[in-house]
Amino acid sequence: MADRTFPVEGSHILMFARSVNDGNPIYADADYAKTTEPGKIIAPPTFAQSVAQFDPDYFLRPRVDEPWFGSGKEATGVESPAGGGSGGGGLHAEQEFTYHRHLSPGDVLTVTTKPGKSWEKQGRRGGLLKFSESITEYRDQNGELVVTARGVGVQTQKVVEQE
Amino acid sequence: MALKASELSIGDKHEEVVVDNLSRTQLVMYAGASGDYNPLHTDGVFTKEVAGYPSVFAHGMLSMGMTGRMLTNYVGDGRLTKYGVRFTSQVWPGDTLTAQAEVTGLREEDGQQLVDLTVTTVNQDGTAVVKGHATARIDP
Description:
A: 163 residues, mainly beta
């Protein structure tokens, strides 16, 4: 995957914090944030994942003027949506962040993703499970590594059975 | 306020309800902010008729994000050094999630006091939806 440039902005942090149901004012109120230990607005711990907004090829975002696999007139807008109950993207199995420091508005990150290990496992509820790992490094405007993320995705053979 | 090593013990717990009666609108908010517009999370027609699930369900990262609120409320702003989870069960509209951290280790690394935590988030039936770990800087 090509490197992405991720400008960290206050309004994005505010919307992201609301979206994870977190009303901590350090994510929204610059005057309050000055009174805290970080001394400024910072991003919630999982905010780095929203680099997806800055990936020009992200396949889980509709593209301008292109068919989309979600519903419109029909239940899907494409002829052959990916099967396996995954909606085309697989499911998210694991995620880990290592923080060297926390992100703040004004940071401009360069984000690099590399594939990691891959493995298979026979699942109890989803059939054969194919796991693949990716390692994403977020470096700031000074070239310093600020966040490392390890993600594991899983492609299920069938729709995950409900208990 | 930051946690203090002198006041913490192995087995200490902190628990919060991080969402009560999860709404479909919350899933839309998360899709919009995170940029993950997978229709499995916001498009009930697609999710039922094409993907084969009973309804839309939460992004795993939404469960992790809401669980993160419990962690930052416990350890303090900007104190986390590591936070990782496995997504162990799907989260559905209407779910109420309770997140808990438990102290499993107190240690020092390069002169910095750290606390290690296990993280577990359960739904209203007691089923774990997120299981993970975190580490945070603490005061002496």
